[in-house]
Amino acid sequence: MNEKLDKVRRRIVSRLDEIQKQQLKGLRFVFLLNNEELYEDSRSILRNMRGVLKELGDAYMFKEALRCIYLRANSSYHAKIAFHRWCKMAEETAIPELCTMARIIRDKLNGISAFWTFHHISNASMEGFNNKIRWLIRQAYGFLDREYFKLKIFQLPEISSVRQI
After folding, report:
1. Would you give per-residue pLDDT tens digits along the chain (165 residues)?
2. Alpha helix stretches (DSSP H) within 25-161
3. Cα–Cα distance between 41 and 64 in angstroms, integer?
4. Are 60 and 38 in contact (CB under 8 A)?
5. Using CA atoms, how far apart are residues 55 and 113, in angstroms rounded to an integer?
6. Residue 154 and residue 147: Cα distance in Å, rounded?
C-alpha cells in the first residue's frame, strides 16, 4: 500500500506548479510513516493536505485503514468482511492506485486471511531463508556439484551471511 500511496503522491506532484512542488518537497516520508509515529506538526500537515490535495489525503487514510484491519480484526472472518468493505470504499474513490490495490486484495484475500487463520504467522522467516539461498547461489557461482549445493542449503542456518571486514 505504501507503494501505491507513493504513486499517488508522485502523480499529484507532477501536476502541481513549482511553488506547490517546493512545499511538498521533503514530505514523502510523512505520508509513508504510520500515524502513531508522526509528530504533531506532521499530523497537522496531513490534515491540511487532506483539504488541499484530496486524493493524497484519501490515499493516506486508506493506508491507515488497512493497518487498522490488521490491528483490530480478531478472526479471518472479521478480516475478510473488513477487507471487502475497504475494497468497496477504495473503488468508490475512483483513485486508480486504490482501485488497483483493491483488486490485488480481492485476488489474494484467501492468502491474506491466512494470517488470522494461522495465529498471526507470516512468511517473513521463509522469505529470509530464501534470501540466504540466493546469497549462497551468488557465493557458489561456478560450482557444478548439485549435491554439495544441497548440503550447503541444509547448513545455511549455521552460516553467517554477513560480510566479514
Report:
1. 888 888 888 888 888 788 777 777 767 667 777 777 777 777 777 777 776 778 888 888 898 899 899 889 888 899 999 999 999 999 999 999 999 999 999 999 988 888 888 777 777 778 888 888 888 888 877 667 888 888 888 888 887 766 666
2. 28-32, 40-52, 54-72, 76-93, 96-107, 109-117, 124-139, 146-155
3. 18
4. no
5. 28
6. 11
